[in-house]
Amino acid sequence: MDTVLIPPRVTDHSSPFDLDDDASYQRWRAWKLAQRPARAEDLVVDVADPRDLTAAEHAALVDRIQRANMALYRSPVTAEDKDLPRALGAQLGLLRLDANWLADEDGISSIAVSDRSDDRGGFIPYTDRAIRWHTDGYYHPEGRRIRGMILHCVRPAARGGVNGLLDHELAYIALRDAAPAHVRALMQADAMTIPARADDDGVARAAQSGPVFAVDADGSLHMRYTARTRSIEWKADAATRAAVAALEALLAGSPWILRTRLEPGMGLVGHNVLHDRSGFEDDPARPRLLYRARFLDRVALPAAPPWR
């Protein structure tokens, strides 16, 4: 199948994410709020086969991702096919898989409850416990930012396992509208530090400091965040503390949060938006199984932003 090429960079240097460019911000903000989905159902696109999208299905997914940074697809494909997220991603310009150390050998992670006797045991995605708000790969260095993701459901839990979703650009709007100083604090290069992780061989991952909000070379907004209170260090200044408190309050009850439970054949595809997961109960005969693919790419969108 044909691969969608990444569009060229926009050459207009105005940016809605420049705190000194209020005109661009207001134009983009008006468009963004007018286009935002009111319900999770507004993100859903029915597709016959995610591995081989029709032109109309592809266009519908791109439309939702352009407006909301994410889309939900619903399909009759419920087989345990590890190639599905890879094939779907390639059609949307997601090509560079992030093969993290807990992923399977093909770079796709099988998200299921895992016994503590293996490397995955005890890591929260591989338990039935709730996962707090985060973006994927928040512990990665700048050169490995996770920009795209796919979460495909093969089998849901018997009960629970609901995902909360929040477009990170809406989080940016809420914080900037409340106080531009919040955004400025969260854009500091040392706003959030993830301490080093050690294993039996020594340091498995070096400490990673970086901003919460950053602007990529193509002008798009990237967010790096976790609501965890352990294994994280926030910059110890008043501005950062105030910004983090404002973000926590937003995630505790924003009307812009969408909630959905992925059913067999359904999936989430798009950029690295904020998400959480409620705890769940498994059916031992049919345990919960999702495939997760994380990419260094963004979805290939039309070159000209529609808000300009």
Produce a short descriptive summary.
With 308 residues, the chain is an alpha+beta fold. The chain has helices spanning 22-35, 55-68, 83-91, 168-178, 180-186, 238-253; strands spanning 44-46, 70-74, 109-111, 131-134, 148-155, 159-160, 163-166, 192-194, 197-199, 202-205, 208-210, 213-215, 221-223, 233-234, 258-260, 266-271, 274-277, 280-281, 289-295.
Characterise the protein shown here:
With 308 residues, the protein is an alpha+beta fold. It has a single domain (22-295), classed as Double-stranded beta-helix (4-Layer Sandwich). The protein is built from 6 helices and 19 strands. It has helices at 22-35, 55-68, 83-91, 168-178, 180-186, 238-253, and strands at 44-46, 70-74, 109-111, 131-134, 148-155, 159-160, 163-166, 192-194, 197-199, 202-205, 208-210, 213-215, 221-223, 233-234, 258-260, 266-271, 274-277, 280-281, 289-295. The strands form 6 sheets. A 6-stranded mixed sheet has the order 1-2-16-5-19-3. It has a 4-stranded antiparallel sheet with strand order 4-17-7-15. Helix 4 crosses helix 5 (180-186) and helix 5 packs across helix 6. The longest helix has 16 residues, at 238-253. The radius of gyration is 19 Å and the shape is globular. The two termini are 32 Å apart.
